[in-house]
Amino acid sequence: MDSGDSSMSKVFHFSSGNPRIEETRGVMHLFCNEQPSFPSQLPVGRKPLLCVLSVPNHMTYADFCQFCGSFVQHMLEMRIVRNDGMEDCYSILIRFDEQKAADTFHKHFSGRKFSSLEDETCNVFFAADVHYTGSIERTQSIPASSTEQPFCPVCLERLDQDTSGILTTICNHSFHCSCISKWTDSSCPVCRYCQQQPGNSTCSICQSPENLWMCVICGFVGCGRYKEAHAIRHWKETQHCYALELETRRVWDYSGDNYVHRLIQSKTDGKLVELNHHCHHDNDGCCSCECATDPGFSETLVNSKVEAIVNEYNELLTSQLENQKMYFESLLQGVEEETDRDIKEAVEKALCQNPRLMKLKVRLDKCIEEKKFLDDINDNLTRNKEIWEAKISEIEEREKRKLKMKDEKIQELEEQLATLMASIETENAVQEMP
């Protein structure tokens, strides 16, 4: 690039790839858009190569493909890179099949918001030149058979730029644009490397970023004994005896004062592997024993070990959870007792400091005693009322029975009187007869 071109371009340093495995670095030269007199004028000597700067990390690959819309079919290759000094965003290098499509894309999306609910805008620049290992410009001359990843890991079809666009993720894995557009996660489908990298861990108390240990019970992060020993202090306060060293992924047992880990997480693919696994038949390597010659036996042995380790960890976690349950219940009970005691002391102290409250308390106690006396009297009267109501009902029943007996007696006497009168009349009639 000559000096005339460099005066109208900006230089951006970028990188790509998984930093734990392999990181590719490079420099991109972008045309400036600072032309106030001719805002729609496109730079001279441009190529069908664009760069979208400062794409927010929360936008996944599928979101960006959906944002581009119909222009995806004109894109031969998209490469995700990260700019130095920009941790919350990434950039995308896009190569189009023709210059007209690149110009239309720049005109349509430059300065446009990614979403109506967000403030981030799409910053589109024409790329004057890009220097990095395996760049987009250089992949045109490389045959498909010599590329590192000639097939798409999703559809297992050959990665051909002429038939479909190719998207290379930030970890340098390539896919078809149509295949990656269906992947709604922000991680890579192959290695699960996520473009949204978590922040650096620090001690929860002293904010130290070195020699950190994380409690496997509650997740507390504290510094080790070579710093301020906040992790050991956390163990003494909570009795959480298992801590994970964040740098080496090893588990330390404070009560046993030794390492108790069996599995660690691989930094390459994130899988769990056994730490320091060596064959017990040969200290120099597993080349002469039956483990190397019999893969079925080796697989069975590894599966049995993994199952035993899982059971061991489950038992350890179960016992620790039970102990922690009892520990926190005792702490809760102690806090409740202390709270009740503090409340009682505060009330007594407030009463002693205020004579008026003391007098009111005396009157309140007297009123409470009177209320209690009146309640007792009310209970006695209620019980007496029930007794007298029972007696009255019994007397009423008895009177009803007496009235019924009297009515029956009167009715019986009337019947006898009627019979007697009838006999007397009959006797008089007989005497009057001649």
Automatic annotation (TrEMBL):
Residues covered by the UBP-type domain: 186-279
Ranges annotated as spanning the membrane: none
Superkingdom field: Eukaryota
Gene Ontology CC terms: cytoplasm
Pfam family, one: BRAP2
Keywords, comma-separated and alphabetical: Coiled coil, Metal-binding, Zinc, Zinc-finger
Any one GO BP annotation for this protein: regulation of seed germination
Coiled-coil segments on the chain, per record: 378-430
Protein name: Brca1-associated protein
The species this protein was found in: Nicotiana attenuata (Coyote tobacco)
